[in-house]
Write a structure and sequence with these properties.
The structure holds two protein chains of two kinds.
Chain A: E1 3-11, H1 16-26, E2 31-38, E3 44-52, H2 55-67, E4 71-77
Antiparallel strand pairs in A: 1-3, 1-4, 2-3
Chain B: H1 3-13, E1 18-21, H2 28-36, E2 40-43, H3 47-61, E3 65-69, H4 73-76, H5 79-87, E4 92-98, H6 114-118, E5 124-128, H7 134-146, E6 152-158, H8 159-163, H9 187-198, E7 203-207, H10 210-213, H11 217-227, E8 231-233, E9 248-250, H12 258-266, E10 269-273, H13 279-282, E11 293-298, E12 312-315, H14 318-335, H15 341-353, H16 368-378, E13 384-387, H17 391-399, E14 408-409, H18 420-430, E15 436-441, H19 442-448, H20 451-457, E16 463-468, H21 473-482, H22 500-506, E17 510-514, H23 520-529, E18 535-540
Parallel strand pairs in B: 1-2, 1-3, 3-4, 4-6, 5-6, 7-8, 7-10, 8-9, 10-11, 11-12, 13-14, 13-15, 15-16, 16-18, 17-18
C-alpha cells in the first residue's frame, strides 16, 4: 500500500461530506485523514483526503469520486520528487 | 402558485406523460395539482410496484420512468426499485414528500432520511426545502437520470416547500460543474482499438446492457458483420443482436451457453461493449479469458479497470463509439484482414455440439422450459417478456428467441424477486399495443402480484405465466447440488395454496390453469386471445427441473457443466 493525497473540490451543499464518506465506506477504501475547508468561492469547498491504496485502486477511487455529481475536480498532490502514480497503469483517454 | 403546482408544471415541462405512485400525508399537496394535470397518474397498490413499473416503462420506452410516494414508509418502499435501477442503469426519477422542514431531524411522524438512505444507489439525490429550487432540481434530475450512464435520481421535497407560494421558472438549460459525461470517444482510442482488432485471430464481441441504453443495435450488427467475429450478449443485452444470427453464440455467464462461455474463455481479444465484467459472467475472475486482451468501451470511466484491466479503454456513448469505430476498422481491415475462419469453425462447432436443451420429465408432467419455449414460439415476434428472478428467469433468457432490442426485461444486477408483475405493468403502459408477458415464478409472483389490481382497473392487460414448481426453485437447485438435497425452507406448496386462478379472478383478471404438456399450446393461445383484461396462467410444472449449463459460483468458466456431473467433451473439440 502507498499513501496518496487527493485534493477534491466539491460543491458546498448539504450532504456532500456524507456522499464522499459513504463512497469510501461502501467501496471499502481506507481514509487516513480528511479535512474540509472553505475556498474563496463560498459555493465551493475543498477536501483533502489522504488515502492508502495501490496505483490501480487509486484510479478506482478517483473514478468513483468523480462520479459524485457534487465533486467538481480531483487532483493528486504529489511530493515534488515523485512522478504521478495515476498514469503508470492505464493509458488515459479521458480527454 | 405554490410549490406543488410548480412541481407538477416542472414534470410537465420535463415531458413526463405517465407516473406511478401513491399519495400520503407529506406528498398530499402535490396530488391536488396532479388531479388537474395532463400527466397520467397510475395509482399503484404498493410503492415498490410504482418503482418497478417506472423501470419497466423506462426499459421499453428508453425515456425516464417516474414514480412518486410520500415520506417515511412510502419512500422506504421505493428503496428496492431504486437499488434495482442503479444496478441495471435505468433512468428513473423518484419524487418523495418529506415532513415539513422544521420537523426534519425530530423523528416526526412518517419521517425517514430517504436522501441519506438512497445515497449509495442513486446516481444523485436532492432534499428540497425551498420551493424556488423545485424546477431546477427536477430539470437536473431528468438530465442526470437520462444522460451519461443512466440511473435513478431521487428528489425529496419537504411538505412546506410544496405548500409555500413560489414562482415557476423552468431553466432553459442544465449545466452542472461536476457532471459532464464524455459522449464522443477520443480519436486516439478509436484508432488503437481498430489496430488491436486487426492483430487478433480470436476476437469476440462481449456485449452488455449498455448497448441497449445507447440504442446501438444497428451499429453492433454492422460492426459484427464487418469483422465477421462471434458475438455474445449478456443477460442485460439479450435482443440487441438477433439470436437467429449465425454470429450469435448466445448468452455467457453462470447459466450461459457452452459456446458463449467458451468463446470468451478462448478468445485472444474481448471487444467489450457496455459490459462490466460482472462476476456472474466472468466466474472466478483470475481464470476468466486469461489469454485475451481487452478493448473496453463504456460511457462510465469508473468501469474501466474496475474488475479487469483494459488494454484499450474507449470512454464514450456506445453509439458514437461504434459510428467512429466502424470506418476506422474498415480502413484497418482493408490493409490487414486477419483470417478468422479457424476461430469461427471452432466456435460454431461448440454451438452446434452444445445447443441449449432440456429433458422431458419421465412422469409425464410438464417441463418448465417447454412452457417458456412454447410461449416464445406462439407469441408475436415483437412481444415483450419480463421475468422475475430465479430459474424461470434463466429459462426465459435461454428459450425465448430474442430478435429485437427492448423486448427482454429483467432484474439483472440486483436480482430482485417480485420485479416481474409491476415491471410488466410499466412495460405495457409504454407499449400498449404490444403483447407483454410476465414470465414469473410462483415465489416471485407472491411478492408483488397486488399490482394486477392496478392493471385490471387501469386497462393494462398484461399476461402472466406463473411457472409454478411450488418452490423457490433456484435455491432448491443449489440445495440439490450443494446441500445434499436438504430442502430447508424452499417448499412453497404453491400447488395447494394459493389457488392462483381464483386469486387472479379476485383481482379482476382472467385466471387459467394448465397441468399437462398437451394443454400448454391451447392455454397459451387462449391467453393470447384475451386482450381486454389481464390474464394469469398457472402453469403447474415439474419441480425438479434444473437450469443448465451451469458454472458454479466462485469456480472457473473452464469448469462449466452441461448437466449434473457432466462437463462438455473437450477432447472432441479443437479449442
Amino acid at each position: 500500500m502507498s499513501k496518496h493525497i487527493l485534493e477534491v473540490l466539491v460543491e458546498n451543499s448539504p450532504g456532500v461530506l456524507a456522499r464522499v464518506a459513504g463512497l469510501f465506506s461502501r467501496r471499502a477504501y481506507n481514509i487516513d485523514a480528511l479535512t474540509v475547508g472553505p475556498t474563496k468561492d463560498p459555493a465551493i469547498s475543498k477536501m483533502q483526503i489522504d488515502v492508502d491504496v495501490e496505483g490501480h485502486a487509486l484510479e478506482q477511487v478517483i473514478s468513483q469520486l468523480d462520479k459524485l455529481i457534487n465533486v467538481i475536480s480531483i487532483k493528486e498532490i504529489l511530493p515534488t520528487n515523485v512522478k504521478p502514480a495515476s498514469t503508470d497503469t492505464q493509458p488515459d483517454y479521458q480527454n | 402558485m405554490n410549490g406543488a403546482t410548480s412541481l407538477v408544471k416542472s414534470l410537465e415541462a420535463a415531458g413526463v406523460d405517465v407516473m406511478f405512485g401513491i399519495p400520503g400525508g407529506a406528498i398530499l399537496p402535490a396530488y391536488d395539482p396532479i388531479f388537474d394535470s395532463k400527466i397520467r397518474h397510475i395509482l399503484v397498490r404498493h410503492e415498490q410496484g410504482a418503482g418497478h413499473a417506472a423501470t419497466g416503462y423506462a426499459q421499453v420506452s428508453g425515456r425516464a420512468g417516474v414514480c412518486i410516494a410520500t415520506s417515511g414508509p412510502g419512500a422506504t418502499n421505493l428503496v428496492t426499485p431504486l437499488a434495482d435501477a442503479a444496478m441495471d442503469s435505468v433512468p428513473l426519477v423518484a419524487i418523495t414528500g418529506q415532513v415539513p422542514s422544521a420537523a426534519i431531524g425530530t423523528d416526526a411522524f412518517q419521517e425517514a432520511d430517504i436522501r441519506g438512505i438512497t445515497m449509495p444507489f442513486t446516481k444523485h439525490n436532492y432534499l428540497i426545502t425551498d420551493p424556488a429550487e423545485i424546477p431546477r432540481a427536477i430539470a437536473e434530475a431528468f438530465h442526470i437520470a437520462t444522460t451519461g450512464r443512466p440511473g435513478p435520481v431521487l428528489v425529496d421535497i419537504a411538505k412546506d416547500a410544496l405548500q409555500k407560494q413560489t414562482f415557476f421558472n423552468w431553466p432553459a438549460s442544465v449545466s452542472l460543474k461536476g457532471y459532464q459525461p464524455t459522449v464522443q470517444p477520443n480519436a486516439q482510442s478509436i484508432s488503437d482499438a481498430a489496430a488491436l482488432i486487426t492483430q487478433s485471430h480470436r476476437p469476440v464481441f462481449y456485449v452488455g446492457g449498455g448497448i441497449m441504453k445507447a440504442n446501438a443495435s444497428k451499429e453492433l450488427r454492422e460492426i459484427a458483420e464487418l469483422l465477421g467475429a462471434p458475438v455474445v450478449t449478456t443477460l442485460m443485452a439479450l435482443g440487441s443482436f438477433p439470436h437467429s444470427h449465425p454470429l450469435h453464440m448466445g448468452m455467457p455467464g453462470m447459466h450461459g451457453s457452452v459456446a458463449a462461455v467458451t468463446t470468451l474463455q478462448k478468445a485472444d481479444l474481448l471487444i467489450t461493449l457496455g459490459a462490466r465484467f460482472d462476476d456472474r459472467v466472468t466466474g472466478k475472475l483470475s481464470t476468466f479469458a486469461v489469454n485475451a486482451k481487452v478493448i473496453h468501451c463504456d460511457i462510465d470511466p469508473a468501469e474501466i479497470g474496475k474488475n479487469r484491466f483494459a488494454d484499450v479503454p474507449v470512454i464514450g456513448d456506445l453509439k458514437h463509439t461504434l459510428i467512429a469505430l466502424i470506418p476506422a476498422l474498415k480502413a484497418a481491415l482493408a490493409k490487414d484482414r486477419p483470417d478468422l475462419s479457424t476461430w469461427l469453425r471452432q466456435v460454431n462447432n461448440l454451438k452446434s455440439t452444445y445447443p441449449l436443451g432440456y429433458d422431458k420429465p419421465s412422469d409425464g408432467s410438464t417441463s418448465p422450459q417447454y412452457v417458456i419455449e412454447r410461449i416464445g414460439k406462439l407469441s408475436a415476434p415483437d412481444s415483450i417478456y419480463v421475468a422475475g428472478v430465479g430459474q424461470h428467469q434463466m429459462w426465459a433468457a435461454q428459450f425465448v428467441p430474442y430478435e429485437l432490442p427492448r423486448t427482454w426485461l429483467n432484474s439483472g444486477g440486483l436480482g430482485t424477486m417480485g420485479y416481474s408483475v409491476p415491471a410488466a405493468m410499466g412495460a405495457k403502459v409504454a407499449a400498449p399495443d404490444t403483447t407483454v408477458w410476465s414470465i414469473d415464478g410462483d415465489g416471485c409472483f407472491q411478492m408483488t402480484n397486488q399490482e394486477l389490481v392496478t392493471c385490471a382497473l387501469n386497462n393494462i392487460p398484461i399476461k402472466v405465466a406463473i411457472i409454478n414448481n411450488e418452490s423457490l426453485g433456484m435455491v432448491r437447485q443449489w440445495q440439490t447440488l450443494f446441500y445434499e438435497g436438504r430442502y430447508s425452507n424452499t417448499n412453497l406448496e404453491s400447488k395447494r395454496v394459493p389457488d392462483f386462478p381464483k386469486l387472479a379472478d379476485a383481482m379482476g383478471c382472467v385466471g387459467l390453469s394448465c397441468d399437462r404438456p398437451e394443454d400448454v399450446d391451447k392455454t397459451i393461445e387462449k391467453a393470447l386471445s384475451i386482450n381486454d383484461q389481464p390474464v394469469v396462467v398457472d402453469f403447474r410444472v415439474h419441480r425438479d427441473a434444473m437450469v443448465w449449463p451451469m458454472v458454479a459460483a466462485g469456480t472457473s468458466n473452464d469448469d462449466i457443466m452441461i448437466a449434473r456431473e457432466m462437463a462438455p467433451d473437450w477432447d472432441s473439440q479443437e479449442l
